[in-house]
Amino acid sequence: MIARLAATFLACALPLAGDLGASVRAQDTAGILTGTVRDSATGRPVSYALIIVVGREQQVFAGESGRFTLSGLGGGSVTLRIQQIGYRPARITVSTTGRPGSASQPLAITLARQAVVLPEVVVRGSVCTGVEELADEAEGGSILDEAFKNAERLLAVERSYPFRVAFQRATTILDSVRQRTGGWIDTVHYDSRSLTGYRKGRVLPLNPPRGRTESARYFTTSDLAREEFRKSHCFWYAGQDSSVDGFPGYRIDFAPRLDIKGVDWAGSFLIDTLTMRLLKSEARMVNLPPRGTTFTAAVCTVFYNPIAPTLVQEFQAACIHSHRTTPPRVVVERWLLIRSTFLGRTPVDTTSP
User: Fold this and answer.
1) Which DSSP state fits 105?
2) Of the N and C termini of the chain, which has fewer Cβ atoms inside 10 Å?
3) Residue 45 has what DSSP assignment?
4) Side-chain half-sphere exposure of 36, counting CA atoms within 13 A
5) Please, what are the domains in the chain?
């Protein structure tokens, strides 16, 4: 619920017209594309930059030294997108022949820092900003783009760095007047390879079980990076927020578009004003019908801890959901991360790839 990887070729890398902050040297390797990402102003490595092969579910994080390795690219032309929180994203095109070749210099990629633009504060009404409207703002350094970067990095970990986690879950059952009627403590395990992500219209099961408490497909922050979620929701900059002690943040609200009538998620994200990393997310169930479900309300708040300077992991959550049962009841769950294990390579290796 919470929360929620290559043969030889000759290559020549060229910056795409109009892209800023990307420079590359000719590449001729034995089937593996390597390179280093650096800050364009200081020349220092950009640790944990995300390198994405556009059009493929293939991505890799640079190490602490800024170095990365991509494999299995084959022949032809591929486009790489390189992004990091606080930097202008860059694209490069790499033309490959797929033939064996001698080793040569790795790619040298530079990213330029960019100031974050704070849009006008919007209170939800008739205004709806979707992904299409955010396209130009994203290249300009909008705080909304920083939220998308955080989500895309979380999704990259789920897809390319499989992991297992264990949470201690404390469950409390309350009656209609919020008196405790029961509860338990258990341990919940899940594998990132089992995560399916957001599906429009499938927040609740189509055929809820009779005689049992209904379960929902809960929102996770990585859903923000999924095209299906982004195209069906609106986003607003909602101003500064100090709800996380010691970490002033920028708040971004989201809600389903007005034409989405089924059960869905609305909520907010909190981005640290200094580091631009994700601090907290909250989602609540909306568009609940009067019949066909036991749910009358559901909300889940998740807190994040850094596992690298610009990469976070869910570590604590509180979820409350109310049900139309006999007798009516409220379920309160508190989750605490107790173990996280990557099943192969990790995104936070400090050794050269």
Assistant:
1) P
2) C
3) B
4) 13
5) 5-112 (2.60.40.1120), 158-342 (2.50.20)
Tell me which amino acid residue 299 is.
V
Say how far residue 147 (Cα) sits from the centre of its chain: 8
Distance CA 83, CA 50 (A): 5
Residues in the chain: 353
Please say if the pLDDT value at position 11 is more than 50. Answer: no
pLDDT tens for 193-213 read 888 889 888 898 777 666 566
**Predicted confidence (pLDDT) per residue in 36-94, tens digit:** 999 999 999 999 999 998 888 889 999 999 999 887 777 677 889 999 999 999 999 87
Tell me the per-residue pLDDT of 282-334, one tens digit each, with 9 for 90 and over.
999 999 998 888 899 999 999 999 999 899 999 999 999 998 888 888 999 99
CA 190 – CA 163 distance, rounded (Å): 9
b/e sequence 250-281, b meaning 16+ C-beta within 10 Å: bbbbbbbeeebeebbbbbbbbbbbebbbbbbb
Helix (H) or strand (E) holding 137: helix 131-140
pTM of structure: 0.83
Which amino acid is present at 273? T
Tokens 């364009």 correspond to what residue?
Answer: 40
DSSP 41-81: TT--B-TT-EEEETTTTEEEE--TTSEEEEE---SEEEEEE
Instruction: Note whether 35 and 186 are within 8 A (CB).
Output: no
